[in-house]
Amino acid sequence: MSDARDPSPYDALLLLSFGGPEAPDDVVPFLENVTRGRGIPKERLKEVGRHYFLFGGVSPINEQNRTLLDALRKDFAEHGIGLPVHWGNRNWAPYLTDTLREMTLAGHRRIAVLATSAYASYSGCRQYRENLADALATLAAEGLEPPRVDKLRHYFNHPGFIRPMIDGVLASLGELDEEVRAGAHLAFTTHSIPDSAADTSGPPAEHGGGGAYVRQHLEVARLIAEAVADETGAERPWRLVYQSRSGSPHTPWLEPDICDHLEELHGSGAPAAVMVPIGFVSDHMEVLYDLDTEATAKAAELGLPVRRSATVGADPRFAAAVRDLLLERAGAERGVSVERCALGALAPSHDLCPIGCCPARAPRPAAAGADSPFA
Questions:
Q1: By the 8 A CB rule, do 83 and 76 touch?
Q2: In which band, very low, low, confident or very high, does the pLDDT at 248 lie, cut at 50, 70 and 90?
Q3: In what order do the strands lie in the sheet with 185-191?
Q4: 3-state SS, residue 220
């Protein structure tokens, strides 16, 4: 009889995130890491990084990852899972390659990877897989035998991700004045990406029409809106909108922008709005600046009452969801029948990204997928 708490064949979990600066002098080097290969001048990077300087040059994402690490370790210990949890970033210390090197030297051979991105897209999935492949190739070049890494599936529709956001919306509605609360709209926000990247997100069978990226976000928004309606007894108008656009103004990106949407709401007579950042796991810079600063200032200028609901962060229910995802994948790897937890109309995501999933413009090796160069 199998043990439902058995994480084998995995001997470690790696929390894989984006990273962010932790001091003013870190900002430009961090942005150089993020934009490497694009030839962006340093003066332009200083301009791009101005919002970091508003917060003392510190992105909150690293501290939030430390908090999530503690939550994961606490949850694992409380449920008898003796699996170490490590942390590595794509663009700032602790760097992914350094963390994987340390894990390899410590004897870890089969590593489950949780990326802090819940949805399918090139930047939210395949690019992490490319970074894993780069790191493993570096270890091999150093004469080390690279461990096997398996990225845990997308968790956008896991109840441990959805339920904390429902509670966040309910709390934000409660903060609005009673005279505007009943008519408040919900603006579900996520990171805008180029239309072309959206259309090719997910497996090839899901390409086109915004692909898996838009489809998954719409499903999460629907699930939250319906749950809020059930618990408040009132259906609310809602829309999926976008934020944090970057890149050439000539390239089509997903729209509308959150600030444009707030103007539209005000013009239509909406009494208030709750901004719901479903595209983000924690309150990092895109939330603190683009929503709490820019969008909130726009709403104040319009005279539109707004609140911003909480992200999942290190909520214990999310930590439990990670444990669930880990044990689910571990059982599947052992050949055990597993129950995959997911809400709504979309099925649980695949374990192994198929060939052609979220393709890059220039093909590069990517680990933890059907096309992985590492067994």
A1: yes
A2: confident
A3: 238-243, 185-191, 273-276, 306-308
A4: helix
Q: 19 pLDDT exceeds 60?
A: yes
For the range 359-363, what are the long-range contacts, defined as Cβ-Cβ under 8 Å and sequence gap of 24 or more? 359/122, 359/126, 359/200, 360/122, 360/126, 360/127, 360/130
CA atoms within 13 A on the CB side of 131: 27
Contact 275, 258 (CB under 8 A): yes
The stretch 358-370 carries a mean pLDDT of 94
Q: 298: number of CA atoms within 13 Å, CB side?
A: 18
Q: Which CATH architecture has domain 12-155+314-334?
A: 3-Layer(aba) Sandwich (3.40)
Residue 179: exposure state from Cβ atoms within 10 A (0-12, 13-18, ≥19): exposed
Rounded to whole angstroms, the Cα distance separating 90 from 20 reads 9
Give the pLDDT confidence of 147-165 residue by residue, as tens digits: 999 999 999 999 999 999 9
Return phi, psi of residue 374, to 5°.
Answer: -110, 125
Q: Name the strand (E) or helix (H) holding 68.
A: helix 61-78
What residue has token string 């210390």?
A: 93
- 12-155+314-334 against 159-308: fold identical: yes
CATH topology of domain 159-308: Rossmann fold (3.40.50)
Question: Contact, 309 vs 167, CB < 8 A?
Answer: no
Cis amide linkage into residue 363, ω under 30° from 0: no
